[in-house]
Amino acid sequence: MAGYDIKKLVDAGLSHFWSESYGQLYQTLGRLVEQGLAVRGEDSGTGGRRRVAYAITEQGRSEFRAWLKKDFEAPSVRNEFLLKFFLASRGEVAEVRQLVLGYQTQQGERLAEYRASEALLRGAVEGGPWPDELRHALGRVALEDGAEESAARGRSTQQALILLLTLRHGVHSAEGRLAWCEEALSALEALAVETARGEKV
Amino acid sequence: MAGYDIKKLVDAGLSHFWSESYGQLYQTLGRLVEQGLAVRGEDSGTGGRRRVAYAITEQGRSEFRAWLKKDFEAPSVRNEFLLKFFLASRGEVAEVRQLVLGYQTQQGERLAEYRASEALLRGAVEGGPWPDELRHALGRVALEDGAEESAARGRSTQQALILLLTLRHGVHSAEGRLAWCEEALSALEALAVETARGEKV
DNA sequence: TCAGACATGTAAGTCGTTACATGATTCA
DNA sequence: TGAATCATGTAACGACTTACATGTCTGA
């Protein structure tokens, strides 16, 4: 694959849980070649429109397999919303509430996006063809087609299922955060009521 | 507050959703002073044990309030687990399953930690005193005490509630991810069964 | 007395983004 | 014909981490 393709693949299919910039990508490809984990194929095309295809080496493949088995770090420990929420703890309850409402909206929108993409993918999991939107976006990644041979059909289904499941992960996350919003809003509500009563007494 | 205190505060109370390193911290404090958003107080103490207290300026305070109201970016778009999960999509189902099992364990442990901290905090929300563990950790942040005056009790309760809610956010997130694990595992199970049947036929 | 916490800072380096430069090709 | 897309790359910068340097004070 060429760098451009990788970028397209990531943007199209993995954008809700991963991102790469060209800067990072080309530099990394260069480093992989230096380390013998990938080889740079011949340039095809000319001038600004030439393509450089990279291929993984045997060493690269085994390194990759080792990496897959290695521990992943726990999902990020930096949430700007929660930081603001915490730092607002001495301010007015109303302001804190506003903050949570904004978060609720944001997560609600996310959830809607995930659900829309999810609907698109359902078909391919049932052994049907990949939806055009995705086929186009993931184009050069050479998705296996579900039509012909049994083994190929199995692989295709598996790929579709896994892509679908990454989306489902987003759905579950967003749902969890929305459930939290409900809880937080009613807790703040209760606090406001209590405070008001306290002031009267 | 001094840089050291801020670091302690973040490590003790915010560690599950934020982190700062000394390098970042002292450099940032310096920049804030340059920009007139904070002032550097006199050094107290001598030699290696001196303390430098920083205080926010009026300008800093208004900048801070503006920042609180500004949009936060959606929680991070980089999840190493999901990347591995996606990239494993052409491998054996059994390996993918292993990956998910690891994630399940990790998230289960996280959930247990959150629940433990949560129990600690419950008391303070009920208007009781801050638990010693937290009082010590958050020490210099000058937590308001819930004992005396009505207004102070209100503020203290609010602070405790908000800290508790940040923890609850972690609980909801972990629960959502664990629910996903269940779903993913049974989907992979179904796939394996189907594939086996396909091969026999 | 001596390990460990206290406390501040700097330097080096990694990781990642944005902006830019270059130039071919496609298509309205 | 000219804007958009294709495609590769570099340079500059900012955010962040790790490691180090320095010296003091506390408590077992």
Description:
Two copies of one chain form a homodimer. Helices cover 67% and strands 6% of the residues of chain A. With 201 residues, chain A is mainly alpha-helical. In chain A, helix 1 crosses helix 2 and helix 5 (93-125) packs antiparallel against helix 7. The radius of gyration of chain A is 23 Å and the shape is elongated. The model of chain A has no long low-confidence stretch (mean pLDDT 87). The interface between A and B is large, with 72 and 72 residues. The first copy, chain A, binds a DNA duplex (28 and 28 nucleotides) through helix 2.
Strand content of chain A: 5-15%
Q: What oligomeric assembly is this protein in? A: homodimer
Give the SSE string of chain A: HHEEHHHHH
Strand order of the largest sheet of chain A: 1-2
Number of H- or I-type helical stretches of chain A: 7
Indicate the overall shape of chain A: elongated
Rounded radius of gyration of chain A (Å)? 23 Å
How much helix is in the residues of chain A?
A: 55-70%
- Low-pLDDT runs of 5+ residues of chain A are none
List the defining traits of the structure above.
homodimer; 201 residues; mainly alpha; two-stranded antiparallel sheet; 67% helix; elongated; DNA-binding
Question: How do the helices and strands line up, and which of them pair or pack?
Answer:
Two copies of one chain form a homodimer.
Chain A: H1 3-13, H2 22-34, E1 38-44, E2 51-56, H3 58-69, H4 80-87, H5 93-125, H6 132-137, H7 150-200
Antiparallel strand pairs in A: 1-2
Chain A binds a DNA duplex (28 and 28 nucleotides) through helix 2.
